[in-house]
Design brief:
- The chain has 543 residues and is an all-alpha fold.
- It has helices spanning 3-7, 60-65, 77-82, 88-122, 129-144, 177-191, 219-233, 239-246, 255-262, 270-291, 301-310, 317-320, 323-339, 353-361, 379-398, 409-425, 427-435, 441-449, 458-470, 474-489, 491-496, 500-508, 517-534; strands spanning 153-156, 164-167.
- β1 and β2 form a beta hairpin.
- The chain is globular and about 90 Å long.
- Mean pLDDT is 76; it is low at 1-17, 23-29, 39-44, 49-57, 67-83, 125-178, 185-199 and 204-214.
């Protein structure tokens, strides 16, 4: 790196244990295209500009000479209309017409409602409205299953729109006004059907969880679960076989014990596990008694304050905002920072606690975590979850600690390697980003710093970590190839963007909110292919 570049990382403050380093772009949640659609509408983007960094204007005259107004005064129709003298009689006449038209529409609506009520009173066989809605829901479900095939009915469904059965007006037969009124009433009831969006759990079950909900366990999945249990039931767990089996995903029922074994937290010998668990849990709470009261000391109060600020920014919000969970996360992160003064606390480390915490909670509950009150667990269970999460996170960070030491050299090396790798596997994407002056560090820094946790939903992160735990140097080495596959996955969308702003909005808010196991499995397969081609031959991606 040049001398100028080194100045960017220079710190003037004295180095103390647990010092804080801010991270570029570490606070962005995964992008939901339906919630952020306005950000990417073409109409909201500035007109494309020619590549090249513009010179900064030193005076207002230079700025004015290089800036074109959005519109001139003569181009604005509203201003032109305002400049004209309007006839007061015309204005009043127009206003009266608007009021009359509105009153007429309201009167028609009241008539429609009264006719509908009369029809219900006249027809004693008509069902209760609630029963009609229930039947309407059943009819919609049958339509989704392909049981309704009438050519006069078109079914439109979306997880973010109302579910409706719409009659085609072009095919409707011409009938009496009474028929039309009854048809309007039926259409009104169909439109009033309640919307029931699919629930996507934070942690997908072992089944191929996609956006359609949680399917029942298949015969193949049950067979794999039996294989896991057989391996784990032995007196000495074969870690190599466990890794092979875990690469394609770990069943939720055995994920906690499997993660503890693959991370090195627990020994392979089954007889020693209970003693190791007791000793490590006691050791962790010994650290709390020794260090946690120092969080308000002069040297440590900045670290604790930054942790306290960052936790509410984490996701899932409903989980981390529970007071009990906030306390647990604050203790875990503060103790880790105090015991690792070479790096201290860095924004991004806080995200790495969440997957371990959520997975270990499922040792004690059967329901999904979405609406679960963590404080309802017994105190002993909470202490075990906290200690286990601390030690497993520590094991993970031991392998990637150079990502968080001074100047974060590990991340800089990985971002440079990602740029070289992408230039070899997809030159079009690489040249496109250079054409519009998008630096890899501007978006990939967060990918490396947070291990893609800000780019993917939590359920996908946990599935991704199944493979990272099973893959040798998964978090430190294999993650590079996952990032390369992840970038190339959005090739079409990247090439469609024709300016710096559009590219940055896309790359920092990729639409993965509705991803599931299937998408993650495809991503991992492509990453493995890249690793197989380039890992043992790094000169392949060096020009």
């Amino acid at each position: 790196m040049s001398n100028d570049g080194n100045k960017f990382w220079k710190r003037n403050t004295a180095k103390v244990p647990g010092s804080i380093q801010h991270v570029y772009g570490a606070q962005h949640p995964p992008f939901d295209p339906l919630l952020h659609a306005n950000l990417i509408k073409a109409g909201n983007r500035p007109p494309p500009t020619t590549p090249g960094k513009p010179k900064k204007a030193t005076t207002f005259q230079e700025f004015e000479s290089t800036t074109s107004d959005a519109w001139d005064v003569d181009d604005d129709e509203l201003l032109a209309m305002g400049a004209q003298n309007l006839n007061i009689e015309v204005v009043m006449e127009t206003a009266n017409k608007v009021i009359e038209n509105h009153s007429r529409q309201q009167e028609l609506q009241r008539q429609d409602d009264s006719l509908e009520v009369e029809q219900r009173e006249e027809d004693p066989t008509e069902e209760d409205p609630e029963e009609q809605e229930v039947e309407g829901e059943e009819e919609v479900e049958r339509a989704q299953e392909g049981e309704l095939h009438s050519p006069e009915v078109s079914f439109t469904s979306s997880s973010y729109t109302d579910v409706r059965l719409v009659k085609s007006h072009s095919e409707a037969p011409i009938g009496s006004p009474k028929d039309a009124e009854s048809e309007r009433a039926a259409l009104h009831r169909q439109r009033s059907l309640p919307h029931r969006p699919p629930v996507i759990p934070l942690v997908a079950r072992f089944g191929d969880q996609n956006t359609s909900g949680t399917p029942a366990m298949t015969e193949r999945e049950a067979s794999r679960l039996d294989k896991f249990r057989q391996i784990l039931a032995g007196p000495n767990t074969d870690l190599e076989e466990l890794r092979k089996l875990s690469w394609s995903g770990i069943p939720r029922q055995v994920r906690p014990i499997t993660w503890k074994l693959l991370s090195g937290y627990l020994p392979a010998n089954a007889e020693r596990r209970e003693n190791v668990l007791q000793r490590k849990r006691q050791e962790y709470f010994g650290f709390i008694q020794q260090y946690y009261d120092s969080r308000n000391d002069e040297h440590h109060q900045d670290t604790y304050r930054q942790i306290h600020i960052d936790i509410p920014r984490m996701s899932p919000e409903h989980l981390v905002m529970q007071p009990k969970v906030t306390e647990i996360f604050e203790r875990i992160l503060f103790i880790w920072a105090i015991r690792h003064p070479a790096s201290g606390y860095v924004q991004g480390i806080n995200d790495l606690v969440t997957p371990f915490f959520v997975v270990f909670v499922f040792e004690y509950i059967e329901e999904e975590v979405e609406n679960f009150d963590v404080s309802s667990l017994e105190e002993e269970a909470l202490r075990n979850i906290e200690a286990d999460s601390f030690w497993c996170m520590s094991k993970l960070l031991d392998g990637i600690q150079d990502n968080y030491t001074f100047a974060q050299p590990g991340i800089q090396r990985k971002v440079k390697a990602l740029e070289e790798l992408v230039s070899r596997i997809d030159e079009s994407v690489h040249r496109h980003m250079h054409q519009y002056e998008v630096e890899y560090l501007q978006f990939a820094f967060r990918w490396m710093n947070n291990l893609l946790m800000r780019e993917l939903p939590l359920r996908c992160t946990i599935r991704l970590w199944d493979t990272y735990q099973a893959e040798p140097e998964g978090f430190s080495h294999f993650h590079l190839y996952v990032c390369a596959a992840f970038l190339v996955r959005w090739r079409k969308e990247i090439l469609e963007e024709k300016d710096f702003q559009g590219l940055m909005i896309l790359l920092q808010n990729l639409p993965t909110m509705h991803w599931g196991n299937e998408e993650v499995s495809v991503l991992l397969a492509e990453a493995y292919r890249l690793k197989f081609a380039f890992a043992d031959a790094p000169n392949h991606y060096k020009r």
